[in-house]
Specification:
By secondary structure, this protein is mainly β. It has no helices and 5 strands.
Length: about 90
Amino acid sequence: MLLGKVVGTVVATRKDARLVSNKLMIVRPADPRGKAEGNYLVAVDTVDAGVGETVLVVSGSSARMASGLKDCPVDAAIIGIVDQVEMNE
């Protein structure tokens, strides 16, 4: 599971029939302080996230276990919207 910030959307007029009506979002992974790190990824949005929000993303087989994505060809899914991150160092 990773933290990331939604930075955009993807519109695909032709896609696998199992992905019809699913929103695709561009997510930039971030560290707990919000600093961007890593490459962008496209994730299926299962929680109605919006651009600018910090989200929780799962990938691989875990993404296919997210709500409504059973047996869908996905590699990343947004499964939560983060309200706050608190760290004790």
